[in-house]
Recover the amino acids of this structure.
């Protein structure tokens, strides 16, 4: 008995729900404008914070190099 036939019927690959389209509203078309704007704002905040962190690390590194 082949391993694919369990309980006498051929085994089907179970699909993880791919029928719903992407979007934050349970598959009712594209996401609304407010969620797009919210994503843009969060992305900008993340980029700004990341740039500030990189700048702080570079300045700290150079000050440590200058002190030695």
């Amino acid at each position: 008995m082949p391993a694919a036939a369990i309980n006498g019927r051929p085994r089907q690959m179970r699909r993880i729900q791919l029928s719903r389209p992407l979007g934050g509203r349970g598959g009712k078309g594209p996401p609304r404008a407010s969620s797009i704007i919210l994503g843009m704002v969060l992305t900008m905040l993340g980029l700004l914070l990341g740039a500030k962190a990189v700048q702080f690390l570079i300045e700290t590194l150079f000050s440590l190099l200058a002190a030695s």
